[in-house]
Amino acid sequence: MGAGGARLGRVELTIVRDPVTRVPKIPGSSLAGVYRTYVAMAMHESHPNRKARGQPWPYYPHCAGLGQPRGDYLGHCAQPDCPVCTVFGFARGRDQAGGFAGLAAFTDAHVLLFPVPTRQGPRWITCPDALRLVGLEVQGVDQKDQKDQKDQKDQKDQNAVYLGSNQNTHLNLGWLLLPVKVCTQFKTIADSLRNLTTPDFTILDYVLDRLALVSDRLFAHIVNSNLEVRTSVAINPATGAAEEQALFSYEALPRGTVLAWEIITKNPGYFRIEGQVISAVSTPDQVHEKVKLAHPYLEHLGVGGMGTRGMGRLKVLFSDQSPSTQTVSCSASSTSATSSPSGSSAPSAGGMTASSSGTEQGGAP
Ligand SMILES: [Zn+2]
Q1: How far, in Å, is the centroid of ligand 1 from the Cα of 107?
Q2: How far away, in angstroms, is 221 Cα from ligand 1 center?
């Protein structure tokens, strides 16, 4: 913010980006914090008179938050029967020492499908890197090393948009006009994505019918040039008027973005809290059940900043086992491309893998 007013062409509040791909993401640490708060809220609603250590110790706000006692805030209870403190961990033991890492771990939430305006209505773009998150290995779209491009044809393959059929020879994605290529196995990709979600969520069919596949490099480019940048003004709560020099801008994922993240749950049987067996949960499935208590809250209260503007609300579409790995080829030259489903990667010792994906609902309600 300059002294004489807002500067043009600069965004003050930027989204966190993946350092390698430059595609925006939600850090797993942010997700874990939001999940913890909402699980504590859910537990508080079902157990409003909860006691711990012989005194009233409501799950919310005490087992939510950062956990260091301060004023009226008691901090994390750190009890082996507390679903919040065992699933999400706590910062300290009873004697102010130790702590517990928690039974659930969260990966970053990555963009899986991203809505882009075209002249024929919105298209949801994806890329091999994004599809790998949900177990789809897509070949023939990306040359891994751009230095390896032998001829101009490789370059053209990278700059194309892949669709299930080509009604037009070109498609404009935002301000980019791209040649259309047909991927014969496109339906396999759409079907795999469809099978990830629960049957009661119907909007995704609309999305999957408008799927478009681009290279990883183009994906990052298109996402970053189609983020919403909004300008807002800070309001002084005392006067209700705009603060002087309080104009700011921020960027956001557009409404309808589909994100994917994984929740890894550990087996409580392998852990002890101050020598005591964890009694709040006893299996990885039970850990996941507690984590899922947050999902209705994500839909209404959202994640991230600008919550009062209705931003960041997520609808969780899928919350089950990890998808199996499948290989799809979009290479134009290969006509006998094989699709070979294989078993999902084995869970690590004492752990279970579960995933959830959701739509980021930017924009006003
Ligand atoms: Zn607790």
Answers
A1: 23
A2: 44
Rounded to whole angstroms, what are the CA distances from 145 to 115, 179, 220? 27, 21, 16
Convert the pLDDT of each residue in 150-175 to its tens digit. Answer: 555 556 667 899 998 888 889 998 88
* CA 78–ligand 1 middle distance (angstroms): 5
Q: How far is the CA of 312 from the centre of ligand 1 (A)?
A: 27
208 is a domain residue: no
Considering the domain boundaries, does residue 295 fall inside one? yes
Q: Please give the tally of structural domains in the chain.
A: 1
Say how many C-beta atoms besides its own lie within 10 A of residue 174's C-beta. 15
Give a yes or no: residue 166 inside a domain. Answer: no
Is 315 within a domain?
Answer: yes
How much distance in Å is there from the Cα of 279 to the middle of ligand 1?
Answer: 12
pTM passes above 0.85: no
Q: How much distance in Å is there from the Cα of 82 to the middle of ligand 1?
A: 5
Q: What residue numbers bound the domain in which 53 lies?
A: 28-107+261-333+344-361
* Cα–Cα distance, 145 to 163 (Å, whole number): 23
